[in-house]
Write a structure and sequence with these properties.
mainly alpha
């Protein structure tokens, strides 16, 4: 096999990876954190012991 054939074949073997740098799982985890935080703060207000 010649160098030219090796280079020709290598040109078609390259895998172009998709640039998916946006992490949807991380974004959803952040959303759930703030939703849960708001919910727990609301429950804390409901069950706060009343000062006598």
């Amino acid at each position: 096999m010649t160098t030219e054939e090796i280079l020709w074949n290598a040109a078609f073997e390259r895998v172009e990876e998709k640039d998916d740098s946006y992490n949807y799982d991380e974004e959803r985890a952040k959303e759930r954190y703030y939703e849960d935080k708001d919910l727990f703060e609301h429950f804390a207000e409901l069950f706060k012991p009343k000062a006598l």
